[in-house]
From TrEMBL:
<feature type="compositionally biased region" description="Basic residues">
    <location>
        <begin position="141"/>
        <end position="150"/>
    </location>
</feature>
<dbReference type="GO" id="GO:0005669">
    <property type="term" value="C:transcription factor TFIID complex"/>
</dbReference>
<dbReference type="GO" id="GO:0051123">
    <property type="term" value="P:RNA polymerase II preinitiation complex assembly"/>
</dbReference>
<dbReference type="InterPro" id="IPR009072">
    <property type="entry name" value="Histone-fold"/>
</dbReference>
<dbReference type="InterPro" id="IPR003195">
    <property type="entry name" value="TFIID_TAF13"/>
</dbReference>
<keyword id="KW-0539">Nucleus</keyword>
<protein>
    <recommendedName>
        <fullName>Transcription initiation factor TFIID subunit 13</fullName>
    </recommendedName>
</protein>
<keyword id="KW-0804">Transcription</keyword>
<dbReference type="GO" id="GO:0046982">
    <property type="term" value="F:protein heterodimerization activity"/>
</dbReference>
<dbReference type="Pfam" id="PF02269">
    <property type="entry name" value="TFIID-18kDa"/>
</dbReference>
<feature type="region of interest" description="Disordered">
    <location>
        <begin position="102"/>
        <end position="156"/>
    </location>
</feature>
<keyword id="KW-0805">Transcription regulation</keyword>
<comment type="similarity">
    <text>Belongs to the TAF13 family.</text>
</comment>
<feature type="compositionally biased region" description="Acidic residues">
    <location>
        <begin position="113"/>
        <end position="127"/>
    </location>
</feature>
Amino acid sequence: MSKKLKRTNLFSKDIASLLYAYGDSPQPLVETVQCVDELVSSYLSDICTSAYKCAQTVNRTKIKVEDFKFVLRNDPVKLGRAEELIMMNKVIADARKQFNNLEGKSMKRTTQNDDELEDIREEDGEDASLNAGSAPEPVKRGRKPKKKKTNAAAKA
């Protein structure tokens, strides 16, 4: 265990909810929550200290994800969960990038379409200010309707 930490109660609300989820009363004792909070805080402090020492052995001052993986290497359950969370973090970051990129492209496309419509109106001699309040007619996109075969074409 690490050195005694100040009683900060960092996770008290979360721990109270977890205790209730695992079968404790809806309002667990304050002493119980404080005890579990101290255990969690000291465990996290130990893990971070070990990861820092691991980074120092490689002459680094910053801790990397690999340092935490190295510290958790003897506990396959915790290591697997950590790798799963790292992978999900990457997936979420990639999805966020794609969403931001698509959002920017669609905004550019709509502004270009509005500018093009104004240019077309001016070329046709229409006053752009008269039609500014009205919405442009929607452009139908998609497949053209299929031509029906006649009996003569079907027989040939």
